[in-house]
Every structure is written in C-alpha cells, then in structure tokens.
Automatic annotation (TrEMBL):
Protein's UniProt name: tRNA threonylcarbamoyladenosine biosynthesis protein TsaE
Pfam assignment, any one: TsaE
Keyword Magnesium belongs to the record: yes
SUPFAM superfamilies given in the database record: P-loop containing nucleoside triphosphate hydrolases
Family as reported in the entry's similarity comment: Belongs to the TsaE family.
Length: 209
C-alpha cells in the first residue's frame, strides 16, 4: 500500500497550482486575493457569532455539553469509528471553540501519530494510509473570500475514496454538502463547550449520543 506522502502527492498533483504546494508549506494567495482581506474582519466576526443553521429536513438534532478539551477530542475519536469514504463532517463555531480539537481526536483515532497541524494556512491537509486507516482531507476554509473558490480545491473529486473534515464550512455557501454531518460548537460562560449536532438522513443509525 502506498505511503502517506505518496498519497498526498497524488492528490495534490491534480489541484490548481494556486493551492498546491509541497506538504508542510503554506499556500500563497493568488494575485487576485493579494491585498484583499482588508475589511474581511467584520464579515468573519459576523460568522463567529452567527446563529445555528436550521435543522436538516428529515434529520436529527441534539446538543451535548463538553466539559473540557479532552471531552471535545473524544467526540472526534468516537466519530472516527463511524466514518466511511465519501462522508463529510462540517465543523462550525467561533475561533477557539474546539473545531480543530475534534479533528485531531478523529485523526488520532484513525491512527495518526503526534498532533495534527491546523490547516489554517495550508487550506487542505491530506492524510492517507498507512498514516491513517482511510484517506482524510482536513480542510479549513476560513481564508476563502468567495464560495466559488472551493471548486479550485478539488474536494468533491476526492470524495469517492476519502473523508472530508471541513472547518468553517459556511464559507463554502449554504447548499454545499447537504448530506454532511454538521457539528456546531459554542463557548459557554463557564468555558465548557456546547456541541449541537445535526445528522442528516444519510447518517441515520450511525451517529447518536
């Protein structure tokens, strides 16, 4: 079976040069985006405090209380046991709420040794066997300026044999990945986290508290 680095290289070769880079190096913004970002802060602060999305039609919604960081990572570890190729896990919530902690717990349970880096600068951090049990793309869309830019990442092309774990999925637009398991974190006054999960019909019987 191919190593993780070769799997990552195969995925990256098909991507736009705008996003592709050697593993571990940050991506540089395109000229079109260079110089932008001024004035984006207000919009991103709005996303930080956005209300919960409407419940999914035919889906199920529940709320969990997570007392601390280990409890947040444990959610990811439990989720890892239920994943299948083609799944999308959408992680929403304000900065520092624990989205990356869930992703790290998930990747550790899939076999990743050491702490997974945040994909904030890389945009997409790929993992593949034997590093993890099944291919995973850990994605952070926070720096995207327009939902159309998601197409350039080639994420849907990878869904056939991979799992997408997407932070800031709202930046991709409201209608992308309708069958995603949506996990939304908020910070409680005492520092605990409230996790609202919305499971679509495609997840019936797989994800429950």
């Amino acid at each position: 079976m191919a190593g993780a680095s070769s799997w990552s290289a195969r995925w990256a070769r098909g991507r736009s040069s705008r996003w592709s880079c050697r593993e571990g190096e940050p991506h540089s913004p395109s000229p079109r985006r260079a110089g932008r970002g001024q004035g984006r802060g207000a919009e991103r602060r709005r996303l930080d405090t956005a209300p919960l999305p409407d419940p999914l039609p035919g889906g199920k919604r529940e709320v969990l209380r997570l007392a601390d960081a280990p409890a947040t990572e444990a959610v990811g570890a439990e989720l890892a046991l239920k994943l299948r190729p083609g799944d999308v896990v959408a992680l929403s919530g304000p900065l520092g709420a624990g989205k990356t902690s869930i992703a790290r717990g998930l990747l550790a349970a899939l076999g990743l040794e050491g702490e997974a880096p945040s994909p904030s600068f890389a945009i997409v951090q790929p993992y593949g066997p034997p590093e993890v049990r099944l291919p995973v793309l850990h994605v952070d869309l926070y720096r995207l300026d327009d939902p159309d830019e998601v197409e350039e990442l080639g994420l849907d092309d990878a869904l056939g044999d991979s799992v997408l774990v997407v932070e800031w999925p709202e930046r991709a637009g409201p209608d992308r990945w309708p069958d995603a398991l949506r996990l939304t974190l908020s910070i409680e006054p005492d520092g605990a986290r409230a996790l609202t999960w919305d499971a679509p019909a495609a997840w019936e019987g797989r994800w429950s508290t």
